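so my prof wants the structure for this chain in the tokens format not the other one, which i didnt know existed until like an hour ago. anyway here's the sequence
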Amino acid sequence: MLYCGYSGVGKSTFVKRVDGIDLDSSLYEKKTNWEQNYVNDAVKKGVDGKPVFISAHREVIEYCLKNNIDFVLIIPNA
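here's what i got, hopefully its the right format
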């Protein structure tokens, strides 16, 4: 399962508790269609059932929605 989290919601900390994967979007050059590679890499990393935590950039969320990729959106509590 993919978990899209906004910056500062604790993705990296939570990953350690659940033995998940934290896929850092800063490793991807923000060119045209970067979100496609980023999300597809996240999906591949999650095939063994581990939760994959990714960024909640607008492009990432839109790509998931457009391509029927299941994800949970984690937002900060105001």
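also thought this was worth mentioning. The mean pLDDT is 92.
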